[in-house]
Amino acid sequence: MKLFHTLTALALCNLASLAAERPNIIFILADDMGIGDVSHTTGKAATPAIDRLAAEGMRFTDAHTSSAVCTPTRYSVLTGRYNWRTRLKKSVFFKPQDKPLIKEGETTVASMLKEKGYHTACIGKWHLGIGWQFQKDYKKEKGHKGMGWDVDYSKPAVTPTSHGFDYFYGIQASLDMAPYVYIKNEKAVKPGTVVKAFHRPGAAADDFEANQCLKVWAEQSVQYIDERAQEKDKPFFLYLPLTSPHTPIVPSKDWQGKSDIGKYGDFLMETDWVVGQVLQALDKHQLTDNTLVVFSTDNGCSPAAGIPNLEKKGHKPNGDLRGHKADIYEGGHRVPFIVRWPGKVKPGSETSRLTCQTDFLATCAQINGVELKADAGVDSISFLETLKDGSKAERSAIVSHSINGSFAIRQGDWKLCLCPGSGGWSAPKPAQAWKGDLPIVQLFNLKEDPAEKKNLQSAHPEKVKELVELLAQYIKEGRSTEGAKQANDGAIPFRKELLEAYPVLNQ
Predict the structure, then answer these.
(1) N or C: which end of the chain has fewer CB within 10 A?
(2) Entry's PANTHER family (predicted)?
(3) Cα separation of 173 and 185, whole Å?
(4) How far, in Å, CA of 106 to CA of 86, rounded?
(5) What whole-number distance in Å separates Cα of residue 388 and Cα of residue 353?
(6) 108 and 6 inside one domain
């Protein structure tokens, strides 16, 4: 009996030691928040919790989303694969009929960590396609405005729990995309039975209110951490994609009037409060020291925030960068990216490492000693060494994508945009830019011209050629990292003008 207790004690010690070597991991992803929206840079709305992460961790000052809009970015965060390799070649998901973008069996951060013994949870906005079942004989009734009425809420759906998550509590997509119902694991908590309009009308649960979602995400996250704290021998991964400050801009009553820059500022402050609730829960259970926390956003600030009015009040949501959400310019995809890992990351440190959010998967894999499969994380390069030493930069190039499917490729200081305008919502917009007499590509030296004002394509044709060939290589190899050639999900579309000028892009 004594031997049994001794062996049991040793086993428990080994489990505790293993858990200590494998940190809990939390990735918080805000929605439509620009690089200038946080108060530790230039923001005029207080964001003390995010500022705390920056003070206690490392800021990545040259970090990027893979896309300048929601759905594609979220795919890349979880899979380590560029969004344009999927069937979604532009735009985002809008309809409940949109099928899951992550393929069955495709490696995600969650599935990889789950295999390593992590408990995994997703709380918040999914926006990667829910596999709803639909009523076969549905006939639209009077008063059924918008979408979501034909969903069969009594049946289970394909949700994040099919992609490596043990637990899911959240919503299908953005807070202006019906149906407006909470989903727990595979089923709606309540069906969509009434019409509600949060910018777009649609089916909603009778108690669903957009201005309460942040409170729900905070409560759910704290509850989850409380539960996981009881099993300290088993690490956890929490993916927390928030719904703010994306439209509708609806701060709850407790936060209205808190900032000096209006509702958008109030919403920023409430978003930060959710981050604070997570950090406090970690502190409460003494989990802070063994938890790696990442904070970032899915793209730059949206023009729906009223950027000109905010700038008049001294608040620059996207800093001094050109463009905003949806654009190929830096304001569309250069975002806040902060990593806190006590004891491993130097407090108050910064790195200029060129980073893409695709790198999250490879980093989690390296931390856990996982060798990724040939078809996993094909565009992911670990930043673990950078966390130890901010001067280390393992990545030399990234590819960016705009809402209309325009590309940019960056290597070192040079950035090539394969379009004549923004590729998005700022001027010159695609329809006008392609009809005009602008060059069909734009080359910028971001070190000398971070605001992307001077197109150098005519002065450096050799650099244009070099970057086009690098992009073509990444496309044809099905990956931008070393490893076996992989397949993209269909050909990558380019305008005929680009294919004629740069035949190497032909697939």
Answers:
(1) N
(2) ARYLSULFATASE FAMILY MEMBER, ENDO-4-O-SULFATASE
(3) 15
(4) 12
(5) 13
(6) yes
Q: Which residues of the chain have pLDDT under 50?
A: 1-20
- Residue recorded with tokens 């004989």: 137
Length of the chain: 507
Give me the residue label for tokens 């069909």.
440
pLDDT single digits (tens) 66-122: 999 999 999 999 999 999 999 999 999 999 999 999 999 999 999 999 999 999 999
Phi, psi of 343 (to 5 degrees): 85, -20
Q: For residue 165, what are the contacts with CB-CB under 8 A and spacing of at least 6?
A: 110, 120, 121, 122, 239
Q: Contact at 8 Å (CB) between 198 and 250?
A: yes
CA distance 38 to 301: 11
| Residue among 299, 391, 389 nearest 352 (CA) | 391
pLDDT at position 21, please? 73
My answer on whether 390 and 333 are in the same domain is yes
Say how far apart CA 224 and CA 231 lie, in whole Å: 11
**For position 60, which CATH number holds?**
3.40.720.10
Single pTM value for the model: 0.95
> Which residue range forms the structural domain that includes residue 434?
399-505
CB 160 within 8 A of CB 122: yes
Sign of the alpha-carbon torsion through 100, 103, 109, 114: positive
End-to-end CA distance of the chain, in Å? 69
How is residue 100 annotated by DSSP? P
Q: Give yes or no: residues 381 and 434 share one domain.
A: no
CA distance 91 to 83: 11
95 CB neighbour count, 10 Å cutoff: 12
Rounded to whole angstroms, how far apart are CA atoms 165 and 159? 9
In this structure, are 447 and 327 located in the same domain?
A: no
Residue 417 pairs in a beta bridge with: 408, 442
Decide: 68 and 299 in contact? Cβ < 8 Å. Answer: yes
Omega of the bond prior to 248 within 30 degrees of 0, cis?
yes
Nearest to 333 by CA among 323, 345, 344, 348: 323
32 neighbors 325 (Cβ within 8 angstroms): yes
Asked whether the beta carbons of 62 and 355 are under 8 A apart, the reply is: yes
Of 472, 425, 160, give the one whose Cα is nearest residue 299: 425
Angle between helices 263-284 and 213-228 (to 10 degrees): 10
One domain, residues 284 and 339: yes
- The CA-based dihedral angle spanning residues 120, 125, 130, 132, taken in that order and rounded to the nearest 10 degrees: 110
Please give the C-alpha separations between residue 168 and each of 122, 126, 135, in angstroms, as whole numbers.
5, 9, 24
Contact 362, 80 (CB under 8 A): yes
pLDDT of 232: 83
Residue 1 exposed, middle or buried by CB count within 10 Å (0-12, 13-18, 19+) = exposed
